[in-house]
């Protein structure tokens, strides 16, 4: 959906994988930005890289793009459009959705490539700001 505004958030994020029954570390819940997903197979946490979690698997070095919202639930193709542009440029993503909007995580090293590809595809990229 070219024309949507995306903002680069000033966040350095990590993604952690824990066992499904593990507790959520309290420091995560005090963070300004986090996402916690628990399934029968895993507990997955996205949070500030400064929060140290003793997780068996951690993937650090993620930057975050926010789709400026709120987005209407009837709107279709938002993630498909963004992920398609980035996939065509060889940029992997992790998507986190909330009630109001979507957040696109890309490896920090690939952020310039992601921004260039999205701008070329017609997305409006706003200045970096806090999370």
Quick structural overview:
By secondary structure, this protein is α+β, with helices and mostly antiparallel strands. It has a single domain, classed as 2-Layer Sandwich (VC0802-like). The chain is 19% helix and 40% strand.
Q: Topology, pairings included?
A:
Blueprint: E1 5-18, H1 26-29, E2 34-38, E3 43-48, E4 57-67, H2 78-88, E5 94-97, E6 102-107, H3 111-120, E7 124-129
Parallel strand pairs: 1-7
Antiparallel strand pairs: 1-3, 1-4, 2-3, 4-6, 5-6
Poorly predicted regions are none
Q: Tally the beta strands.
A: 7
Based on Cα principal axes, name the global outline.
globular
The H-level CATH homologous superfamily, spelled out, is VC0802-like
Report on this model:
It contains three helices and seven strands, in the order βαβββαββαβ. It is globular and about 40 Å long. It is α+β, with helices and mostly antiparallel strands and 131 residues long. The protein has a single domain (5-129), classed as VC0802-like (2-Layer Sandwich). Strands 1, 2, 3, 4, 5, 6 and 7 form a seven-stranded mixed β-sheet that branches.
Task: Throw out a few tags for this protein.
3 helices; alpha+beta; single chain; 40% strand; globular; seven-stranded mixed beta sheet; 131 residues; 7 strands; VC0802-like
């Amino acid at each position: 959906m070219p024309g949507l505004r995306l903002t680069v958030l000033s966040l350095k994020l990590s993604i952690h994988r824990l066992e499904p029954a593990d507790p959520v570390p309290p420091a995560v819940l005090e963070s300004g930005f986090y996402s916690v997903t628990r399934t029968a197979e895993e507990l997955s946490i996205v949070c500030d890289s400064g929060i140290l979690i003793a997780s068996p698997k951690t993937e650090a070095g993620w930057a975050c793009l926010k789709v400026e919202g709120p987005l209407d639930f009837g709107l279709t193709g938002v993630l498909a459009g963004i992920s398609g542009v980035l996939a065509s440029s060889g940029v992997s993503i992790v998507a986190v959705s909330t009630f109001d909007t979507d957040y696109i995580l890309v490896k920090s090293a690939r952020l310039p490539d992601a921004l260039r590809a999205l701008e070329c595809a017609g997305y409006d990229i706003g200045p970096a700001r806090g999370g």
